[in-house]
Amino acid sequence: MNSCAFCAWKSMLRHMGCVEITPYNKDQSEFEFWTRSVNSEKDREMLQILHDLDFLHPAPRKFCDQTGTLWNCIHESLNANKRGQDGKSRILSIVAEQFPYCEIKKNLNISSSDTINEARKYARIHGPGAKCVEKPIFTRTTISHEKLDQLQQFLDDKNNVIMSSYKTETKTRLPVKYLKYTKESLWEKFSYQFPDGVKRTSFMMFLQGKQYIYQENLDGLCSICSRYGYEIFVEMKNFIEKNIQNNNLQKDYINKLEHLRRYLKKSYEQELEIAVNGTVAHNACISHCLPYAFGTYTESHSHECVKCGQLFAIFYQLKNDTPITLHNELEEYQEHLLYYLAHQTRKVYLNTQFNANLLELDEKGALIVMDYKMKVLPKSARETKEQFFGKKGWTLHSVLVYTRKEDSFELDIQAHDHWSNDPRQDAWFAA
Question: Which terminus of the chain has fewer Cβ atoms in its 10 Å neighbourhood, N or C?
Answer without folding.
Answer: C
